[in-house]
Specification:
Length: 120
């Protein structure tokens, strides 16, 4: 990124948005995924590259957490990719988890979190 460029941050679940705004200053433009559809955010932000770092993490899930795991680790990323396709954004970086490869195996998820990361 060139010096003096603008970063655009997509934040969901408001608890982190206030902290981000205080810490990041004026070189950042914030979009709230709780308030605006992802496709509209991608269109407004017009990014060159998208770094998808969002996740819902838990080592041992409860039945009540399954919907949140699926929403954050599969549905959110799928909608983000769809928004990117709609606006011609082709560069995508996705954070995986070492928990997807327990004991160094090609694929052996240690828990539902790891399985949901792999499913995306």
């Amino acid at each position: 990124m060139q010096r003096g460029g603008m970063f655009r941050l997509l934040c969901a679940q408001r608890r982190g948005v206030i902290f981000c705004r205080r810490q990041c200053g004026t070189r950042f433009r914030f979009y709230d995924a709780d308030e605006m559809p992802l496709s509209e955010i991608v269109g407004a932000a017009a990014p060159d590259v998208v770094f998808h770092l969002a996740t819902y993490y838990t080592t041992v899930h409860s039945p009540e957490e399954i919907d949140a795991l699926i929403a954050a680790n599969i549905t959110f990323g799928t909608k983000l990719l769809d928004g990117m396709a709609q606006h011609g954004v082709q560069n995508f970086v996705y954070a995986r988890s070492s928990w997807q490869h327990y004991h160094g195996d090609v694929y052996e998820p240690v828990n539902l979190y790891a399985a949901s990361k792999e499913a995306f």
